[in-house]
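[09:14] KT: can someone run the structure on this one? pasting the chain below
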Amino acid sequence: MPTISIFYGIVIQMFWNEHAPPHFHALYGEHEALIDIIKLEVLRGSLPRRALNLVLDWAELHQQELLEDWALCEHLQQPKPIKPLA
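[09:31] RB: done, structure tokens below
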């Protein structure tokens, strides 16, 4: 699964040819959450509150890039890296 960003110990990844709705995986330690790109909410799993807030802030800033990466993955193409949260 391609890693598209890493910040504050949080790894953001996206699978190729994944099921709808458009989403990404956020991993932090032993925690994992699937985040809906359009609604910016947790679909499944969980993260500690602080990590989740950082992920949602980052996703809001890069929502269009995440949707573009989702489209690439749907076509079995490598998603582009996205700048980490600074």
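[09:33] KT: thanks! The chain is about 30% helix and 30% strand.
[09:34] RB: yep, looked fine to me
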